[in-house]
Design goal:
By secondary structure, this protein is of the alpha/beta class. The protein has one domain: 3-Layer(aba) Sandwich (Rossmann fold). Helices cover 53% and strands 15% of the residues. It contains nine helices and nine strands. A seven-stranded parallel β-sheet has the order 3-2-1-4-5-6-9, with helices on both faces. It has a two-stranded parallel sheet with strand order 7-8. This is 2-dehydro-3-deoxy-D-gluconate 5-dehydrogenase. It is an enzyme of class 1 (oxidoreductase). Belongs to the short-chain dehydrogenases/reductases (SDR) family.
Length: 260
């Protein structure tokens, strides 16, 4: 008998894939969502054989709003309840805001904000009715300040942080916990896809997944992994916001040069 059913977006690689492995190892049935359905099918075969669990693969593009509703309706029609929701899927783009294609900016906000909002709203309603459930939203250290060259991504993660904190307070009386994980750089394909270099301080996806998983199980709300990052966020409170934004932008520019 499994522990429940977990829905994970962006499950085909990076942090999402590592979280998928942890939930599988712990005996959860899974619903895996990503655009790379070939990779998801491979993951399904490997994990079902290894851990004797049931995995549902959904090939969905979360930049399309109807996709989120389709996911919910399909599971509802199959009488499948989601016990844990992991909003991991995310997009970013490095460059000057005014030079970035509008279609790319809209895709970022569609996945990072709209899809997360829709999925959270639909599934947390059912969790609240059952008075049981957990939600893990993946934000970023960038949620705490704006930054030049990656403005839309950081802004979208600020939304994730704010929303998660608010609904965590709302849902606690309904037996539902909300955890928002705010890591620094992680060694995944995200940076390459966003067009920027990898920070020397980046941690492995396995390490990040382990920290996020532990935080979710512990019912923590806002999680900033690492003493260094916590000190940086705390220290930034005593600086003018324009200075914090300037320094963040300088760091992004350095990482861009490292890529080149």
């Amino acid at each position: 008998m499994t522990k429940g059913r977990v829905l994970i977006t962006g499950a085909s690689s990076g942090l999402g894939l590592e979280l998928t492995k942890l939930f599988a190892k712990d005996g959860y049935d899974l619903i895996l969502v990503a655009r790379n359905v070939v990779k998801l099918e491979q993951v399904k075969i490997e994990l079902e054989l290894a851990y004797k669990i049931d995995i549902i693969v959904l090939d969905k593009d979360l930049s399309l709003k109807n996709s989120c509703i389709e996911i919910y309706d399909e599971l509802k029609n199959r009488n499948i309840a989601v016990d844990i929701l992991v909003n991991n899927a995310g997009l970013g783009s490095f460059g000057l805001f005014h030079e970035t294609e509008l279609s790319k900016l809209l895709e970022i906000t569609a996945v990072n904000i709209d899809a997360l909002t829709i999925l959270t709203r639909l599934f947390c309603r059912d969790m609240a009715k059952r008075k049981s459930g957990k939600i893990l939203n993946i934000a970023s250290i960038g949620a705490f300040q704006g930054s030049a060259f990656i403005a839309a991504y950081y802004a979208s993660k600020a939304y994730v942080l704010s929303l998660s904190e608010a609904i965590a307070n709302e849902l606690k009386d309904y037996g539902v916990s909300v955890t928002v994980f705010c890591p620094g750089p992680i060694k995944t394909n995200f940076h390459k896809a966003a067009g920027k270099g990898m920070s020397n301080t980046a941690i492995s996806a396995e390490k990040a997944a382990s920290l996020a998983y532990s935080a979710l199980r512990g019912g923590k709300t806002v999680v900033i992994p690492g003493a260094g990052l916590k000190m940086m966020i705390f220290g930034a409170r005593f600086l003018p916001r324009r200075v914090v934004v300037y320094l963040a932008g300088k760091l992004q520019k350095i990482q861009k040069q490292q890529k080149g």
